[in-house]
Amino acid sequence: MTSAAPPPPAPPAPDDRTPGGPGDPLATGGLALGGTLMVVYGLFAVLQGITAIADDEVYTSFGEYVFEFDLTAWGWIHLIVGVLVVAAGFGLFTGVTWARVVGAIVVGLALIANFMWLPYQPFWSIIMILTGLFVLWSVFNYRSTRAV
């Protein structure tokens, strides 16, 4: 009678659900959520831009700020950035590399615009900055499961 020890467990596959790996459900789901947030954010930015263009009396500034633009100019900035964010958000659903690169660039521009928009809508700008940071995290942590 020999008592053979059971074989050691096999090491996990490289595409297993390791944090940050290709099968990481948080990163994969984060990309889908990031794309959805980009589309919703872009639509809000478009509406925000239209509001600033149509009626300068809707927004008021909370004090002096270095980056002062006319509200109509801010409206056009938010409108253009919003359209770009919506387009990049839809591109993220494909999971291709160029859509992630364009999405990261456009979200970076949106982060800068929201930082500069702080004196007009501080609470909303902070929410959009935090949302943009999550979108950037999800774009940079996504790893495709497709073979290269």
Tell me about this structure.
By secondary structure, the chain is mainly α. It is 62% helix and 0% strand. It has helices spanning 25-54, 71-92, 97-116, 122-141. The relative contact order is 0.17. Mean pLDDT is 77; it is low at 16-21.
List the helices and strands and how they pair.
Layout: H1 25-54, H2 71-92, H3 97-116, H4 122-141
Helix pairs in contact: 1-2, 1-4, 2-3, 3-4
Indicate the proportion of strand residues.
Answer: under 5%
- Oligomeric organization of the protein chains: single chain
What integer is the average pLDDT?
A: 77
Q: Summarize the helix and strand pattern as letters.
A: HHHH
Largest sheet: none
Radius of gyration: 21 Å
Residue stretches low in confidence (pLDDT < 50, at least 5 long) are 16-21
Cα shape: elongated
Topology, number of strands: 0
Distance between the termini: 50 Å
- Give the class from helix and strand content and strand pairing: mainly alpha
How helical, in percent, are the residues?
Answer: 55-70%
Output the number of helix runs.
4
Can you give me a brief rundown of this structure?
By secondary structure, the protein is mainly α. It is built from 4 helices and no strands. Helix 1 (25-54) runs antiparallel to helix 2 (71-92) and helix 3 (97-116) runs antiparallel to helix 4 (122-141).
Features:
148 residues; 0% strand; single chain; elongated; mainly alpha
